[in-house]
Write a structure and sequence with these properties.
There is one protein chain. The protein is 50% helix and 12% strand. The protein is an alpha+beta fold and 688 residues long. Strands 6, 8, 9, 11, 14 and 17 form a 6-stranded antiparallel β-sheet that branches. Strands 7, 10, 12, 13, 15 and 16 form a 6-stranded antiparallel β-sheet that branches. Helix 5 (102-129) crosses helix 6 (132-145) and helix 13 crosses helix 16.
Length: 688
Amino acid sequence: MNITDPSVSIIGKRHARLAWFVFLLLLAYYLCLNAEPLFHHAYVETGDFAANALKIENASQGREIYGNYSRWHFNHPGPFYWYAYASGELLFYKLLHIVPAPGNAHILTFLILSLGFLVGGIHCLTKAFNSPSLLLILSALAMLILVPQADYFIIHWPPYQVIMPLFLAACAAVALSLGNSWALPALIIGSGVSLHAHVAQPLFIGVIGIFVIVMLAASKARREALLPIPRKTLLTCLVLAGVLSIPFVYDGALWILSRESNVGQILKHMHGHHGSRHTWASALEHLLQFLGTDTTFHHQTPDGHIARCLSSNVVAFVFASLVLLYNLVLLLSVIIRRQFAVRTMGGISLLGLGLMAATLSWATMQDGEQFLFNSLFVYSIFLLNCVPVVLSLTRTLEQRCRWSVPVLFVFLVGSAAYGDRNARSHYLRTSPEESLVTSPRFAKWMEVASQKPVLLQFNKNDWLLGTTLACQLKRLRIPFAVDHQWEFMFGRENGSQHLLETSILEGRGLQVWKVVEQNESSASPGAWNTIGSYTLHIPAPLIVNDSIITYDAAEIQRRSILYGFRTNAAGTLLVGKGTESKMFIPVHPSSLPFMIRFWFALPSHAYHPFKLSVGIKSREQIQSDGKTESLDINLGQSAQTECIRDGGVLLHFLWAGLGARIIKIEAVPIAMKAEPPKPQSIDLPRSE
């Protein structure tokens, strides 16, 4: 097609109408397939989805600047999807009321965006090559390729979010490289969203940018067709680029000024892991595993078993091999024979193979285990490599039989629909935590939570439960906090230190929540704090009266919130070596001046100084002499500044040497004259 032909505008409108038709057709298909869970079942977020819901809540208030968390304790670069989901929640849930819960609105928004990116990318190619059949066949082929991974259109898990924006960016780059300035806004949208979604995307967007520059530099005719760019298109691009770059500019400014930024954390992680790379063989195994029928996100590459990666789906392996071989032959034919008729398709082959090589390189650079969710965007790259094959096929079919393309489209869609019958069970998964949130008793839990800010305590095995509770508290605007070790997932604004400092300044109380999952037969079914197998424990506060109250290690663990401690066989609390440990002890408000006495059992063969901070401000230091010692923390007249009013005492332990054991804690009224009883001597083994 001559890109300067005046009939291009009319043809472009026809292509646009066809693109809208295909988009609405695919949207109706997936909505009908998921109508029951999407429109009639309230989706309860847990795990990553609940953690991301915290960021969506921030975005609804215009306070989110980063993307989803990484297990390497930084965030992916941008919050595009959080603001998109917040907008979808406002429209579909709060205004139109067509979905029963905010989570359903997020899913519906993701479905619309994913299909929009897919059809938008194919539309760019259809318009550039003047091939309506390409839009039909490639859309159906995308459905068929993703049948074993049907969740990719319907579940808004962050690794899925980068698949279709990258495809849009690649397709728009192909159209732009042919001299079509109208593709520039689509390229900016696809590239910007990809950069927001995943930290690895600068590698792939860089390859796309280099491709566009090389293709335009190689053809004077394309440069002349591209320039000058219409003013309306240029203004649109500037607005899009400006909006999408706001998080990067803001975070970059923070990094330049103080280095306390997300990009600083990313660079620090890259520097710390520099030089640790996977082998090329391992990277190849990683990519070949995507051809299998079971690509559950938590699978990792079985080292040394390429045959096992392929045995699950030989047909997929043969098809992928033929597609990549076709692109390689096409590219070589353009280079060697300089055939103008296939040069444009050769550009697609160049970009597709270049992105595949970049994916292989990325697989060698991944940190830790090569989980599949690290590279799910490979599906968009493979779909791009299918374009030359589909384009050649549709042109041949159009010349021989004009009805063959619609028949092939119906066949592919029917095959995808048949495969989706077995994939429906994967859509909108329900979680065990759903029974907790949907229980009528859960309203009582939230009523209790509204009385005081909540310190959530949970262990590593219960992180799904912790995220579910945090999500519900956030939506009700109830202040909460988690241990500092979970801040990378829940956000720094939800860290314990921030809430404790705020509570001290505002004079508010706190409550410690310990939610545990246990056997339903051992639970108390009639108690308000028990829902199914989940039981909420709120430690009773320490009450100061006219006698000494003693808590042993087991009682301390039940009543307080502990960070950085562990128990041992002797029934004491062991403080880690060289680490900061925290203890929050609930204290009932009292007018009596009192002190808290700690009894320590220290190793006898070395000298072990440590620091202890009470509350936020005061700091006391004691140096051990190798014997069992006690430390008295006076909470008399200064209790209001060092304790959380109507809350409790926050203690920080920082051990400079080897760890020591806490035997017991006593609450001692200062008015008492009698000396407290001495603890029994404990023989401790020598620390290693």
